[in-house]
Amino acid sequence: MTGAPEDEREPETQAGPGRPEEARRGVGVLAGEEFSFAQAVGGVRGVVESGAPGLLFVVVYIATRELVPALVASSSLAVLAVLIRLAQRTPVTQAFSGLLGVAIGVVWAWRTGDASDYFVWGLWVNIAWGLGAMVSVVVGWPAVGVIVSLLRGEDQSWRTDPGRRALRRRYTLATWLWVGLFGARLAVQVPLYLQGESAVGWLGTARLAMGVPLFALGLWVTWLLVAAPGGRAERPGQPPSPPR
Predict the structure, then answer these.
(1) Which of 71, 125, 140, 200 is the most buried (most CB within 10 A)?
(2) Taking the mean position of all CA atoms in its chain, how far away is CA 100?
(3) How much is the pLDDT for 142?
(4) Rounded to two decimals, what is the model's pTM?
(5) What are the respective helix, strand and coil percentages of the chain, to the nearest 5?
(6) What pLDDT score was predicted for residue 73?
(7) How do the domains of the chain map onto residue ranges?
(8) Whole-number Å distance between alpha carbons of 103 and 108
(9) How far is CA 16 from its chain centroid?
(10) Sequence-ordered alpha helix ranges (H) in 65-164
(11) How far are the Cα atoms of 145, 228, 232, 236 from residue 240, in angstroms, in the given order?
């Protein structure tokens, strides 16, 4: 589940057993007792680092109708984000993963000469995540349950414990939610990609709109399913939370 923000990586996760609530980022918010959209997307900085390179690529390409300037602008901004992180001695995981995603898109588009191929890596990533989540349900290891249990430092006994069937259903439903999210991205973006360079602007817009915002929304709904009062009551040793 890491959607990517849609930008081929998810906002960095710094959550784990014993970590303070404010340290949780990205999927780490699923281990918290409260949900924060700001923490889910890595704050304003996380949103900028996730979306700015793609946005700049689209703007420069539409303005110039030249591929190389757009590729240079996008990759330069991604490199700058990493350098700023290094200079400030802050965690570079999110910025570096963003740079990796941009680098793959740049190389792909440069080799084919087609601007729309800047976004093709993201499509393949969504296919992989969607199929992976679907397979995890089919084999009885719903991905959301596995991830949340690891984040909370719990075992995987919810899979076979008859007394925790309700929690297992929640994990399964939440995993199908992510299958639907990745599928929705593909349903919108693949047709735009197939239109080629004439739809680069629309493809880039769809990529941004269905990236970090949709990822954050998916995390929130997932949190409601597995970490809100109902889900909390079904976890071992966890009393129900008071109404929010």
Answers:
(1) 200
(2) 15
(3) 96
(4) 0.80
(5) 75, 0, 25
(6) 96
(7) 21-233
(8) 8
(9) 18
(10) 67-88, 93-112, 120-138, 143-152
(11) 19, 9, 6, 11
CA–centroid distance for 227 within its chain: 19
Please state, as a whole number, how many other Cβ atoms lie within 10 Å of the Cβ of residue 111: 9
pLDDT at 231: 53
User: Which regions in the chain score pLDDT beneath 70?
Assistant: 1-24, 228-244
**Coil, strand, or helix at residue 154?**
coil
Please tell me the predicted confidence (pLDDT) of residue 94: 72
